[in-house]
Amino acid sequence: MYILMHKNIPVADISIDSAIGGISKIDAVHASERLPIGTTAPYGKDFGKPRRDLLSNWWTERSIPASRDGIREALDAMGVCSPKLLLEKCYGLSLSDHYWIRPKHSDLMWENVNFFTNDFSLDVGEILFGRMPKSEGEVNFMSPDSTSDGWLRKKWIIADGKRYLMKGGSGVYRQEPFNEVIASVIMTRIGIPHVDYTLRTERTKPYSVCENFITPNTELVTAWSVKEARRKENSDSVFAHLARVCGEMGIPGFTDAMNRMLTVDFIINNEDRHFNNFGFIRDADTLQWLGAAPIYDSGTSLWHGTNAIGQNTECKPFRSAHIEQLKLVQDLSWFDADALGAIGGEIVSILSQSPDASPERANAIAKAVEQRVALVVSNSLEKR
Predict the structure, then answer these.
(1) Strand ranges (DSSP E) for the chain?
(2) Spatial distance between the Cα atoms of 17 and 53, rounded to a whole number of angstroms
(3) % of residues, the chain, pLDDT over 70
């Protein structure tokens, strides 16, 4: 038996099936307004009431996905059969929000266990990277790595008191870390709020590194959770539905944020902007919505796994074709193409640091990005 907590506020009494890791029962609700977004009935006579299935899905979605690179070997090394079972071992604590589970009769407090202000174990992260932890004895599971999503290898580290996420690459080119840096450069130039990424090499492998943009006083709510909080009308597109829900919930700045996100995703040919890698920020204490989260997680882009550079690929989340998704951008008056002058040279410079990207590949990617910038300019002129 556990209490689902939001910082030090009891939210609900729950039971967890330790065999499968899911929530089997909601025994009582203490603070319905603090239930995770998207875990209550989205319509009908039970609108706003907690639903066990939705809360259980939210809980298990906090775990490392089964698709994570190297996860089976890591689980074997930790003696755990499913990543969902890691959640209980770290009280479900995350560096993205302030939810956690407290054993029913425990006197644990948020101040003593949260990962924002307390040190955490590096054991899980080391094992996820295919290494044995440096600590002796049993694995210490108190780590935010057990609640990190995505399929690429990643781990949290602490440096100078700050929390940083390291994330690897994949495939032949291991290009994702370099793409994160390129996306950061592009967004810096055209003034799009984003998370800054830098490069780091560890044991000859490239990684991107970014500081946590969530603080002890804020939390991230994914676009998936927001869109699932209300029933989608048949007449609405997914884009219109999300816009409507943001309006109903009082989330500011949706249109402006989407204009910028969809534009940069077009420029870098982002293939994987799914509903769980963009979202919104709220004050964790007052629950007031602060606006869209800065853009993060842009690595699956720039033709990262193909030699067909410049060709169109499928995209997400609102349309399957980039040019169709770009049409959803309502205003491009903010877009300054001049700020992206000579961007191709900077792209080549960044990719030249990769041992897996030939000069020919780097030049082809740079040229393709410049062509897409020109297409954005054309689209901007059409909207005037």
Answers:
(1) 2-6, 9-16, 23-29, 99-103, 154-159, 162-167, 198-202, 205-211, 218-222, 279-283, 289-292
(2) 13
(3) 98
